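Annotated sample (chain length 172).
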Amino acid sequence: MSARSTILLGLLIGIAAVLHIIENWLPLPLPVPGAKLGLANVISLIALIYFGWRHALYVVIGRVLLGSVAGGVFLGPTFVMSLSGAVGSLLVMGLAWKHWRPSLSIVGISVLGAFVHNSLQLVIASKLVSNYGVLWYLPWLTLFALPTGIATGLCAAAFLNRSGAFFLVEKQ
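Output written by the structure step:
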């Protein structure tokens, strides 16, 4: 990996961590408690497309680590839920990008990632509280994953369409 690529990955980790922190601080008046917009996932999707799954994993882990340390939740339940959702979502988005890319757009991949992220977080939450009743919340989060996944995918697509020579790395 070139020095330029390393610097760009570091930049993506920093941007994703800042977005992660800002999103946790924003008091969003959303109808679904605990739902987030997924702003940092825009950066994860960009990293996946430009650098591939392995390097996007660095971005995801880096942003969750930095965001949880800054937010004071490192190694707590929120950290575990955030990390599991982010890594699982990235894994599914990476597989979708590799196998379904021609027929599934970046927006579709993002919606899939949002659904997996929400689902995994609920499964982890139900395990942490030893109550599967938490899973009744899944239909609401699934409905919320659609608009947030679309918004995240559109943001990533807009960036990718305009970034051009900025990255100067071979897309994966």
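Annotation: The chain has a mean pLDDT of 87.
Annotation: The CA atoms of residues 53 and 94 lie 6 Å apart.
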